[in-house]
Amino acid sequence: MSGTSPPPTPGAAAAAVAAAPGGGTGDPVRICFVCLGNICRSPTAAAVLAHVAEQEGVRDRLVISSAGTGDWHVGGPADPRAAAELARRGVALDHVARQITRRDLEHADVVAAMDRMNLAALHRLAPGEETRRRIVLLRAFDPEGGPDRDVPDPYHGGPQGFRDVFDMVERSCRGLLAHLRAAGRL
């Protein structure tokens, strides 16, 4: 795993962290990662954030979850290729796929979508503007990403796609933690 990344430039990501009602008051910050089926990208992101937060000594300040916008894989495990890449990198995974709910959105401090399609679906599901402000693309926190960059879906590809996703997600999670620290949430 790489070193600490500088926080990305301000924008929607910084606004989402600033809008997050949790943290700073003794309450943990609740973060939910969302992709399409909740078997590749979002469980990878949840596992990586837990791992990095443990390394940085802030794991107890976070409640981390993941979900999918679709219901195809509900109740199933993570994709074996995602699980294999996490294991290869020494990151633990405990996952059962589930579908995102409006309640998840209402209770999360930050909702990190993997791509613009999921972002749009989450905005449609969100009950109001306050909730929509807390929904961002995960790669907005990636110093090599940007506010409009997706974490590509590796599902129909080979092992290299899962390696690339891990690297993007790790950079993004480190950036997210840097933003949370800068905002006084950790």
Structure report:
The chain contains seven helices and four strands; from the N terminus they run αβαβααβααβα. With 186 residues, it is α/β, with parallel strands linked by helices. The protein has a single domain (12-182), classed as 3-Layer(aba) Sandwich (Rossmann fold), CATH 3.40.50. It has a four-stranded parallel β-sheet, sandwiched between helices. α2 crosses α7 (159-182) and α3 (80-88) crosses α7 (159-182). The longest helix has 24 residues, at 159-182. The chain is globular, with a radius of gyration of 15 Å. Mean pLDDT is 90; it is low at 1-10.
Could you give a quick summary of the protein structure above?
With 186 residues, the protein is an alpha/beta fold. The protein is built from 7 helices and 4 strands.
Q: What is the percent of helical residues?
A: 40-55%
- Figure out the total of helices: 7
Proper CATH architecture: 3-Layer(aba) Sandwich
Strand fraction: 5-15%
Major β-sheet annotation: 4 strands, parallel
Query: Which structural category fits the helices and strands?
Result: alpha/beta
Order of helical and strand elements: HEHEHHEHHEH
CATH homologous superfamily designation: Response regulator
Would you tell me which CATH topology applies?
Answer: Rossmann fold
List keywords for this structure.
about 190 residues; alpha/beta; Rossmann fold; 7 helices; 4 strands; globular
Fold blueprint:
Blueprint: H1 12-19, E1 29-35, H2 41-55, E2 62-68, H3 80-88, H4 102-107, E3 110-113, H5 116-125, H6 129-133, E4 135-137, H7 159-182
Parallel strand pairs: 1-2, 1-3, 3-4
